[in-house]
Amino acid sequence: MKITPLETLTPPTSYAPGDSPAPTKSHFWDKAARRYAADPIADMVGYERTLECMHQWLRPTDRVLEIGCGTGTTALRLAPLVASYWGTDVSAHMVAIAREKLALHPRPGLQFEAADADAPLATSPQYDAILAFSVLHLVQDLDATAAACAAALIPGGLLISKTPCLAEMNPLIPWVAVPLMRAIGKSPPVHNLNQERLSAAMTRHGLEILAVERHAGKGRDVRPFIVARKPALNS
């Protein structure tokens, strides 16, 4: 029997449209929400490989939080694998689209909330897994987010991420293209990360790296898939 989030979890700190705690940040993604929802996934083969890989890390009894869930595409695919699943995003407009999708394709145990990944994620350890797909390069403070994830995970819980790493791309992208796009309002602030910096932020806050994989359908993959675990109490 599926367990709904309200029976097992304290809801993430959320807000209503027009009441965002981070209006500048949410405003960018609110404006982009409908276009983002309509854009096709650039590397569908790599995306499907990531989803398939998740089957080995998620369990039917898991309580899952996804930060930066966007319009809910991944949440709708993964929620049937677990007991309860919260999808959160800083953009209330993104969340509204995710809820529209959920109404068309109901998933027991799945709910969406507008919530900021830069805020504390829980008042106590309660999640078996926290998912962060295409979001860790966008948070204000990577260390603060890693610490918040570690605090919200139960002992033995997993932080699973897949992150575009600008430092692994052509240098013209982080040093020329992105600054120009930011100057004309076409890009939010973005961290210039690589796999080593991501892993180091996680280990600084007590998480153990279990796996680092690359799932691109072709070419060099600049989106490392990283699984990190909070130590169990008896470890």
Describe the protein's architecture and organization.
By secondary structure, the chain is an alpha/beta fold. The chain has one domain (5-229): Rossmann fold (3-Layer(aba) Sandwich), CATH 3.40.50.150. Helices cover 35% and strands 19% of the residues. The chain contains eight helices and seven strands, in the order αααβαβαββαβααββ. The chain has helices spanning 5-8, 23-38, 44-54, 73-78, 92-104, 142-152, 172-183, 195-204, and strands at residues 63-67, 84-89, 110-114, 127-133, 153-162, 208-213, 225-229. Strands 3-2-1-4-5-7-6 form a seven-stranded mixed β-sheet, sandwiched between helices. Helix 6 (142-152) links the parallel strand 4 and strand 5 (153-162). Helix 2 runs parallel beside helix 5 and helix 6 (142-152) packs across helix 8 (195-204). It is globular and about 50 Å long.
List descriptors.
single chain; 235 residues; alpha/beta; Rossmann fold; seven-stranded mixed sheet; 8 helices; 7 strands; 35% helix; disordered N terminus
